[in-house]
Design brief:
The protein is α+β, with helices and mostly antiparallel strands and about 180 residues long. It is built from 6 helices and 7 strands. It has one domain. Strands 2-3-4-5-6 form a 5-stranded mixed beta sheet. The chain starts with 8 loop residues before the first strand and ends in an 8-residue tail after the last helix. Bound molecules: zinc ion.
């Protein structure tokens, strides 16, 4: 079976009107804001999104993004493989007033009817929102295997700084196009 190629641009309203799907793999190195926060990686994000209208006539884009990124553990500073599986649940709105009326289980995607949106930007926003603020190995024994002992607090603070960037890289709470 042929895998449909992922387009660069997405027309959210058109996709919803067509009950369209958006599936495929996107290389992580196409996502510069995300790459700034992680160790170099050659992975991909698997995208599986479907669009349509729900029972109330609300146009939506929902689905899942899956990838694995390599972060720096903030306890031992060792590398940390971090699987990300992000549920996407966007409701399309034209105005902020419509966004305010959106059911709580949808995030607003503010877009004009003819807007074309970068698929990479949309995917990157969702992944950034799903990243842990302070990634750490789940089991401290893994940190000890990376040489974790008594950390020098100044060193930890220095290493943490890249993650301080996360806040500045996150999308605005209201997406727009
Ligand atoms: Zn660790």
């Amino acid at each position: 079976m042929l895998t449909p190629s992922l387009p660069d641009k997405l027309y959210p309203w058109q996709l919803a009107a067509d009950n369209g799907r958006l599936t495929g793999d996107l290389a992580l190195d196409k996502l510069p804001r995300l790459m700034a926060l992680m160790n170099p990686a050659n992975g991909v994000v698997s995208i599986d999104l479907s669009a349509g209208k729900n029972g109330q006539g609300l146009p939506f884009i929902t689905g899942c993004l899956r990838t694995e990124v390599e972060l720096t553990c903030q306890r031992c500073l060792g590398s940390l493989r971090w699987p990300l599986e992000v549920a996407v649940r966007l409701g399309l709105v034209r105005t902020e007033a419509e966004a305010a009326r959106l059911p709580d289980d949808y995030e607003p995607l503010l877009a004009s009817p003819d807007c074309a949106m970068s698929v990479a930007d949309l995917v990157e926003d969702e992944l950034l929102l799903a990243l842990p603020q302070i990634p750490r190995h789940a089991d401290q024994r893994e940190c000890e295997a990376h040489g974790y002992g008594a950390p020098d607090p100044a060193f930890i603070a220095e290493q943490r700084r890249p993650f301080g960037l996360l806040a500045s890289l996150l999308p605005d709470s209201k997406r727009s196009c």
